[in-house]
Amino acid sequence: MASAYTPTQISHYLSHISLPTKYHDSANRVLDLEFLSALHTHQLSTIPYENLSIHYSCCHKVPLDPQGLYNKFMKNGRGGYCMENSIFFNYILRGLGFQVYTAGARVRPRVGGVPQGDYMGWVHVVNIVTLPTGIKYMVDVSFGGDGAIKPIPLLEDHITRNIGTQELRLVHDSIPQHIDKGHKVWIYQYRNQSDMPWNSFFCFPELEFTLADYQVMNHFTSTSPDSFQTYTVLVVKFLREGNEIVGKVMLVNGDVKRNMGGKTSLVKTCKTEEERVEALREYFGIDLTQEESEGIRGTVTELNRPFEANFLLTTVDS
Which of 93, 138, 158, 311 is the right S-S partner for 98, CB 3.0 to 4.6 Å? Predict the structure, then answer.
């Protein structure tokens, strides 16, 4: 299926993410791992993972139409959460000529900072790219804090180095909730050092999902009181030096945190909405409009509300 974006839109996107000019020439473009990895790196470090449309908007909805996503991401430093970013990136990859489709993923919630317990329903999205070599890669540009900073091959126990000492791998196996243990999925695992145990965080099948599937997933994720997205203001932007991801800066409700080389430090705690809106601008380059800034008033995530509840983050490291 063709991309929703024109060649002109694709070209503008490549400039927007500061992709090296050697990849801009469509006549000599090679659809290899080097190009895919460069796109992954520059997408991550330019377009943040953020769920601000749920909190800072007049309607508190998350549209998934491709032109709306494009227009949102090309200005004011904005990004989106997993369904927004991954669907957008899918259209970009298709427009560049890659063989790619999207798949839904089940995620385990964090308990005490570590993913534990049962996998939730379909609340995440990954892209699966098949390169001309025939090797398939999981490309995930919107998982947040413990997300992969490069494509990961769909190969058993292939270890990929992430930020700092963190390592990643995919395991092809069933999950505890499966009745049919012969039904296997790819399980995304991480560990923060090579001598630590592996933590299973999310899983996905090699089954193509469609936009109709994501409309259902998106409705629950962005509106249900059982979804952490509706009671947590969350932004994660990866930091790049040259062509390498070296760290990340995060906003979790009122706290701004920075992680460099795998070590997290608290940068700032915002006490008021004015402070948080300014922090979005200062640390993430996100410039909310006046209307967007006012959209959070009277909601559960507004800072400095009476009887404000404190919630634990479930998807990025603290």
Answer: 93
Place of tokens 């400039």: 15
For 176-194, give the DSSP string: TT-SSTT--EEEEEEESST
The vertex-284 CA angle with 39 and 47, nearest 5°, equals: 25
pTM of the model: 0.93
Using CA atoms, how far apart are residues 155 and 157, in angstroms rounded to an integer? 6
167-211 residue pLDDT tens: 999 999 999 999 999 999 999 999 999 999 999 999 999 999 999
The three-class DSSP label of residue 155 is: coil
Q: How far apart are CA 110 and CA 96, in angstroms?
A: 36
Tokens representing 190 are 């991480």
Q: Are 87 and 66 in contact (CB under 8 A)?
A: yes
Distance of CA 86 to the CA centre of its chain: 7
Contact 53, 62 (CB under 8 A): yes
Residue whose entry in the numeric block shows the structure tokens 């570590």: 114
Burial (0-12, 13-18, 19+ Cβ within 10 Å), 126: buried
Helical axes 82-96 vs 211-223, angle rounded to 10°: 150
